[in-house]
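Appendix B.2, paired examples.
Example (i):
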Amino acid sequence: MDDEEWAINIFCLSQTEAVLAREGITDKAAANWIHHQVGLATRRAIAELGGTMPEDLLAIDSLKKLERQQTKKALPVPKKRRASKSDQSVDQAEEAE
């Protein structure tokens, strides 16, 4: 979630809470209806201002996914090295013992 989508969500939440408190609504069904109405009004305002609708905003990868990608980039993969003749002679000497 980017800053713009976060701001939209916080705005809807705060406006819904304000309406519920102002009108003294405690019924769950009524609260859901108010929340829906505030969401519709917010979407109309975004459209009128020429903004980007929340569903059209770019999705942001999760923090854990980004951390895994960074870890993969930071840790070099060790290359297999071919055994040299001196390594082979040491291995043979160890086997002989």
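Example (ii):
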Amino acid sequence: MLSQLALARDVPISTDMWKANRLDSTQLVVLILSGRLEGQQLQQLRESLAREADGKRLVLDLKEVRLVDQSVITFLADCEARGTWLRNCPGYIRDWIDAGKSGEAAESEAISKRELDIP
């Protein structure tokens, strides 16, 4: 589906540390993120994503992302859980997202066992 993306426009969105280019089709909005993403930029990134999605399926292309911190990993995991596609996600970011999911599942299981008084 993404290979058939008809580019209606390519609009740069940028800050000092990261940049996004918007590729728009009739059904998808692809934001190509690049650079360094850190927690202090998340509010601006959230606002950009909300503005750019415009009721369409959102895809975050992470191929050119070079550095992220833990708050960005949590943010990306939340985006993915809400249906955003993470395209070209670097292996280390995918590993951290998956590790967070595993940790949440283990924590949830431990809480359930405590509630049922199971050792």
